Amino acid sequence: MIKTVEDLRKGLKNGVVNFTYMKKDGSIRHATGTTRLDSIPVEDHPKGTGRQADGVVNYFDLEKSEWRSFREENLVSIDGCIQESHRGNESGPVSSLI
Question: What b/e readout covers 39-74, taking b as 16+ CB neighbours within 10 angstroms?
Answer without folding.
Answer: ebeeeeeeeeeeeeeeeebbbbebeeeeeeebeeeb
